[in-house]
Amino acid sequence: MRYDIPYAAPGQVIGLLGGSFDPAHEGHAHITREALKRFGLDAVWWLVSPGNPLKTRGPAPMAARIEQAQAVINHPQVTVTGIEERLGTRYTAQTIAALQALYPRARFVWLMGADNLAQFHMWQDWKRIAETVPMGILARPGQRISARMSRAATLYAPYRILGRNSQLLAQAHAPAWCFVNVPMKDVSSSAIRASGAWSA
Ligand SMILES: Nc1ncnc2c1ncn2[C@@H]1O[C@H](COP(=O)(O)OP(=O)(O)OP(=O)(O)O)[C@@H](O)[C@H]1O
Ligand SMILES: O=C(O)c1ccc[n+]([C@@H]2O[C@H](COP(=O)([O-])O)[C@@H](O)[C@H]2O)c1
């Protein structure tokens, strides 16, 4: 199951939400439902990461995270996948290149919370990512200002699509990004781990 290759119909627009999902929570589910609506996506794939390259702490085992994530998001348009492990990619730029080769007729949109936009310039080949796929950014408590002031937001300011035009993002040519001010949920995996409620 965890090595399944998700199906994508030709021309489908697929949002990719990469994450450690250690564990998945209502914040992930909420931004996914908002992204489907606000960006007019056909589907969202949760890419359960073998391990965030910027995090020193290794996550819980992949199979446990996938199983828990599937229980959290029970939505007909959402697929939880461990495809990065199968592709052997850990860095997002590599994952996107591999997915585009595997699904040449699909259209991908990279999704992330505002905290990740704030750090985006530390990712490997971040400019290549921004110039390859449109990016949908979802508000996160305490992160809206740091995201808007970030290096990536500044560099790509001319390519920003305003939130009220979010439906244009998926068909836009990269670089293109859109920050949507969705209602926010103050939930995080680290808080859940700290509470002791997740031990895989
Ligand atoms: N409550 C939230 N609001 C908005 N975006 C979120 C929220 N929780 C997670 N995200 C986004 O979902 C993606 C995956 O997040 P991740 O799996 O790292 O969860 P997390 O709660 O941020 O974990 P941790 O607390 O361990 O850093 C990231 O792009 C992150 O910004
Ligand atoms: O490619 C990179 O350099 C890179 C650096 C940090 C994070 N990422 C990706 O960002 C996504 C969110 O990671 P995380 O751990 O914050 O859930 C996940 O798909 C990671 O693989 C990617």
From TrEMBL:
Reactions catalysed according to its record: nicotinate beta-D-ribonucleotide + ATP + H(+) = deamido-NAD(+) + diphosphate
Pathway stated in the Swiss-Prot or TrEMBL entry: Cofactor biosynthesis; NAD(+) biosynthesis; deamido-NAD(+) from nicotinate D-ribonucleotide: step 1/1
Domain of life, per lineage: Bacteria
Chain ranges of the Cytidyltransferase-like domain: 16-194
Keyword vocabulary terms for this entry: ATP-binding, NAD, Nucleotide-binding, Nucleotidyltransferase, Pyridine nucleotide biosynthesis, Transferase
Annotated GO MF terms: ATP binding; nicotinate-nucleotide adenylyltransferase activity
InterPro entries: Cyt_trans-like, NadD/NMNAT, Rossmann-like_a/b/a_fold
The keyword Lipid biosynthesis is assigned to this record: no
One record GO biological process: NAD+ biosynthetic process
The EC number(s) this enzyme carries: 2.7.7.18
Matching SUPFAM superfamilies: Nucleotidylyl transferase (SSF52374)
One family name in Pfam for this protein: CTP_transf_like
Entry keyword Transferase: yes
Role noted for this protein: Catalyzes the reversible adenylation of nicotinate mononucleotide (NaMN) to nicotinic acid adenine dinucleotide (NaAD).
Annotated HAMAP family: NaMN_adenylyltr
Family: Belongs to the NadD family.
Protein name (database record): Probable nicotinate-nucleotide adenylyltransferase
Organism of provenance: Sulfitobacter guttiformis
Lineage: Bacteria, Pseudomonadati, Pseudomonadota, Alphaproteobacteria, Rhodobacterales
Gene: nadD
